[in-house]
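Write out the bound-state structure for zinc ion.
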Amino acid sequence: MSDSNSVVSEGKVVVFHYTLTTDDGEQVETSKGKDPLPYLHGASNIVPGLEKEMEGKSAGDTFKASVVPAEGYGERQGPGPQSVDRSEFPDNVELYEGMAFTAQAEGGQEVPLWIDRIEGDQIFVDRNHPLAGETLNFEVEIVSVRDATDEEIAHGHAHGPTGTEGHHH
Ligand code: ZN
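---
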């Protein structure tokens, strides 16, 4: 029997290590060799498919989760990357592949965009997250589980592994 205080459920801050690999075997991200990642469970801080797999797990558990695009970063949508001239971007901003930014759509709402690739002065931007359309294969190790502080619940995110790290935002 595990202590119910260390079981992942809504209102818990979970600290975990992970490695993320796509179906073609490319390792996208890993926390190995770095600090584990804290998140607030039930607040959509991580992709929905992984959050579901976390539910009910305990500190010390290790598991693998395969997350389909619909529960990850979504299916790819739209016409694909569109070419934009470099001059449309501010001169003083360094652009790179995979960079996320927001543009203002007609009507004023903010639209998230990512740079797909750069070919000279042509910047190819896409409305899809770089991992849209990909099945996400996670290897997870849960390091710790604790109650979130009132402030973390109010903010909708974790404030570091212990909740006392203060603000970086
Ligand atoms: Zn905060």
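---
The chain has two helices and nine strands.
The radius of gyration is 19 Å.
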